[in-house]
Specification:
- Keywords: Methyltransferase, Transferase.
- This is DNA methylase N-4/N-6 domain-containing protein.
- One of its GO terms (biological process) is methylation.
- It comes from Roseiflexus castenholzii (strain DSM 13941 / HLO8).
- The protein is α+β, with helices and mostly antiparallel strands.
- The protein has a single domain, classed as Vaccinia Virus protein VP39 (Rossmann fold), CATH 3.40.50.150.
- Helix content is 24%, strand content 25%.
- The protein has three helices and six strands.
- The strands form two sheets. It has a four-stranded mixed sheet with strand order 1-2-6-5.
- The two termini are 19 Å apart.
């Protein structure tokens, strides 16, 4: 069942009965730039507009944590909701990416895994997806951290 913010469904509040789903695929925005208080500060402007239209509803975040903590908060709340709708032994597949926010390295995949373990999930597999091309970088004067890869992991409830 396709469920997306573009169709008006938030991954933190799914319209499904508890224990009714065998598998949930979670692919929310993992860029802290999509969780800004002002629309003019949102990431994905200009030539990167596809990021904003694909990975967010294009609206500023008006409440809750800021920056990387907003990303983590979304994943944690979506994990709670996935746990609610999954049947016992249901599978949760999560796409995420580690990030640097305010020049601090965040191992987002580790933070999410630890949170999901507290819900009763366990990590069955972890996949590191390597992009075939170089990422576009704008406004970076000096590279402080290694380039990041996407992580995809699956867990069992």
């Amino acid at each position: 069942m396709a469920t997306d913010i573009e169709t008006g469904v938030d991954c933190r509040n799914l319209p499904y009965d508890s224990g009714s789903i065998d598998c949930v695929v979670l692919d929310p925005p993992y860029m802290e730039g999509l969780f800004r208080r002002s629309e003019r500060h949102l990431a994905g402007a200009g030539t990167y507009a596809a990021f904003r239209s694909t990975y967010s509803n294009g609206e500023p975040t008006v409440e809750g944590p800021k920056y990387h903590e907003a990303v983590l908060d979304l994943y944690c709340k979506a994990g709670n909701e996935a746990h609610r709708v999954l049947r016992p032994y249901g599978i949760l597949i999560v796409k995420c990416q580690d990030e640097v926010s305010a020049n601090i390295q965040h191992l987002t995949h580790v933070e999410i895994i630890i949170n999901y373990q507290s819900l009763g999930f366990y990590t069955k597999d972890l996949f590191v997806l390597v992009r075939p091309n170089k990422p576009a970088v704008s406004r970076m004067k000096k590279q402080e951290h290694a380039r990041k890869k996407s992580f995809l992991f699956s867990g069992i409830r």
